[in-house]
Amino acid sequence: MPVNLAAPDPASLLPVPGVELGIASAGIKKPGRKDVLVMRLAHDSEVVGVFTQNRFCAAPVTVCKAHLHGEDGIRALLVNTGNANAGTGEEGLARARATCSALAGQLGFKPEQILPFSTGVILEPLPHDKVIAALPAAIADLKPANWADAAQAIMTTDTVAKAASRKVALDGVEFAVTGIAKGSGMIHPNMATMLSFVATDAPVSCEALEAILRHAVNQSFNCITVDGDTSTNDSCILMATGATEAPVIMDDGDPRFPALRDAVTELMIQLAQAIVRDGEGATKFMEIRVEGGRDVAECKQIAYAVAKSPLVKTAFFASDPNLGRILAAVGYAGVADLEVDKIKLWLGGVLVAEQGGRAASYQEADGARVMAAPEIAVRVHLGRGDALATVWTCDFSYDYVKINAEYRT
Fold it and tell me: Residue 396: exposed, middle, or buried by beta-carbon count in 10 A (0-12, 13-18, 19+)?
């Protein structure tokens, strides 16, 4: 079961003027499962994205990058689950492009105006004929209020759909921000670590939209890890339809820019944390905060060392206050000149370690009490500066092994 996470109320998800969503079943992995999503965008929508840094990136990632640099703009997104179309070589690229051509033909767009996305099993050919056969049903289903169904359609090992909305008032005009995400395993950032699609009807230039996306991703999807594995298919797309009349936000100097940036960031943080709460087999949600560093990079480096450690994660699953594992992870994180006698470690509000060893006030019963909770805060102070970084992660349970051992069956 996910950690303190429920499926979104469909009524809470705001339609975004200029965005329509349609869902269909292609039977890619399971018969009858809704596994194809089409998103149609208004003319002149601005679309930006960030993608996995995995060198073995999937065919749809390669196609998306090329299409985003086109001159005609993006008019639709096509998502399939059940097959990642990764590790599929030139044939995989050809099949991704074939799905783009098929959707473009049915919508009256150019193939280069379509962005394809796939998620699922790696190293297997994409059954593009099934995807193409499902397109008429997805197109017939296109409507603005389909966000909840879209969130379900992109799930793989997720147990709960992930979606959220915000309203933001910019100079007296109200706009919507709505997004969905999928991810549960193979989650570790080097950009983002899943699929996520976020849209607003605010009028935003491409330059300003890219600045918003970079900021939001670095505060959200680049601050989570479930298992330390960076996927081949990670993609995060931000769309601005400009369907509501208002002057365009051209750059970060516009006084409306911070409010929109913050709304998008808050929404992406909610989606990113939802991914961790629904981590494969997760029973605990942990916040790892490292402060007192010389810069954010070293704080994040240490936070990730703690968050990725299988020994730390299994201890949290067992509610075992074997907290020397945290100190060990801090020590091997790769920050060579740390002074261990300056480091302090808290579990919740309990001081665990200081001056190079166990805090005199620490009692193991206090540590066990904190670790028994489903949500746990770990705080590390490095004693060498003012920088800080926060990372969110989950525990490793028996079910994580079971889910991944049986993923293809």
Answer: buried
